[in-house]
What we know:
Largest sheet: none
Mean pLDDT: 90
CATH class of the largest domain: Mainly Alpha
CATH architecture of the largest domain: Orthogonal Bundle
Number of strands: 0
Order of helices and strands: HHHHHHHHH
Radius of gyration: 19 Å
Shape: globular
Number of domains: 2
Helix content: over 70%
CATH topology of the largest domain: Tetracycline Repressor, domain 2
Number of helices: 9
Distance between the termini: 54 Å
Amino acid sequence: MTKITSRSKQAEKTKNKIYKNGVKLIIKRGYDNITVEQISKAAGVSVGTYYYYFKSKFELIREIYKKGDEYFLKEVAGKLKCSTLKDQIIEFFDAYASFNINNGIDMVKNLYNPDNKMFITDGRAMQQILVDIIEYWKNNGDLIKESSSIEICRILFIAARGVIYNWCLYDGSLNLNKEMNIVISKMIDGIIYETINTKL
């Protein structure tokens, strides 16, 4: 077991302080309207210290997604309670909706722009968890083997991001969990229906 030294604890504390102040500024002013200098000043550290922990301003965005992946690994992977393919996927995206709600509408609005390529970054844990769920049900015969789990995951996330974008358009006034449930349910019905027809 790796021993956590007081020095490494202090480093983690400093990094989190920079991260939290950066997020506050993103929410308050928008990502494009803040600088590394402003983030450093808000966190009470030098610009050099900022660059020690984050290579660029965009690294803060990367950190947001990293924390999202960590949350799904800790709170969602292997913990879904539903016992059917459809219900497990709905449960997964319900957690995804709740995670966005917890991030807050202002932060989510800042993330949903065409310059943010983190949504389409390969190898993220969040997507892999869903791929593993789909693979499990494919192995149980609920989906045909030929259907690509990665492609199904990609399609479902496109739909889910559309729901969240719509939530942003309505300034968070919609019931995001309910909207997500409706759309993902219909998407899964379409995928299962297509699978059944392919088997015939």
